[in-house]
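quick one
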Amino acid sequence: MRAWDIRGLVLDLDNTIVPWHTSDLRPSISAWFAGLVQGGVRGCLLTNNYGKQASVVARALGTPIVLGALKPVPFGYRRSLEHLQIEARHALGVGDQLYTDVLGAKLAGMRAALVQPIGRREFPTTRLMRVFERPVLEHLRRGGMPGA
Ligand SMILES: [Mg+2]
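structure w/ magnesium ion:
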């Protein structure tokens, strides 16, 4: 992140920071995030979710949050950048889904990091989208495209 001059993270919530539809923030995630903040990197949560538990997580982390983001539409990413007060080239989008988190970050001009979902429960449409993610991820694993 230092090499890329990343100053802020736009973080997906469900299955990236907490298990799907919970506010179950694990100590390891809190500690990871606190380390980033200490290193001068800020964070903003960006979620398609509207649930009350989303704001609970934002309060616990001390981050702003953009709800109902309609990812991969860039609007929510722009709101997040305003919260972070950085330009897209200094932001890294982090999430567990290719066609929302990674695509949305790229459409907004950011770098993106795809992470493994931290839980197995998820929205039924998400489960369907995993079917379409699989061939692309296979291609990437074989070195088909440069990372980030
Ligand atoms: Mg997610």
